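Fold these two proteins, one after the other.
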Amino acid sequence: MRKILLTLILIGSITTAFAQKADPEKFSIGLEGGIPLASARAYSTFTVGGSLKYNFTINDKVSLTASAGYIYFPYRADATIPFVGYGTTNKGEGYIPLKGGVKYFISDVFYAEGQAGAAISTATGGGTAFAYSPGVGYRFDTHADIGIRFESWLQNNSTINQVALRLAYSF
């Protein structure tokens, strides 16, 4: 009986020690805004959206991430374009980015992150683009986070680029 009790205490102590070092696995929900770059800037002046992200902690510095979201590019009123094979419109288009990646904490609060995946158009006749997004961020506490990233979507020898900001709440 004493051995079982000591074993349970040891396991509990080790688990508690590791839990204090690393962020637990958790979800975050974020508001996103961006500025299109290069040729995309001629058709849209900003982007807006939201995302849900899951962090799976590997150790006290590294997490694997999975995210899904919705980004809307409102087009300028005078732009009717076939944009990267995503259809022709002057109302704007929505995209569903699905990405996975790695987050590395440079310090207790600053991190670098890289993600890759797909951006799926919500427009009729749209398509799916390869997406990648390197970025950096700052964790205010265990529940608040802000990050900035360069994001690029590639399809049919065309590219959509943006610089985006994400303000998130973790739970």
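Now the second one:
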Amino acid sequence: MRETENRSRKYAKQLRRSLTNAEVFLWSRLRKKQLNGYGFRRQHPVGPFIADFACIAEKLIIEIDGATHSTEMEIAHDQRRTAFLENQGWHILRVTNPDVYENLDGVLEAIAAELPPPSASRPPPPHAGEEFLIFKEDK
């Protein structure tokens, strides 16, 4: 593993312990495959960068932009980061803190619109504590 990736992984682990309020709010609705059965990871390292949330199966990254994404230098950094991630095959969806706080359902709809529809043949994930019952056909 390259040194930058190793540093990213260590830093991502630290970030998972100190999510922003907006990240906690969104994570509460993405975790445990709650959005159409898709799994997401929080603070996921991709090369030298760390994505706020990533759906590995569909190569979708969700970034929550707060006040720290408003200066020219920060915007330029985000553009370089986006170019790197897109070059790696990722699609990036950016939302703002106010989007998450004031329109969480709209944010979830925007995320769902970036994902393929759930398969009709795939059953929905069980809720916590539930188990699937398997029945055999009588012959």
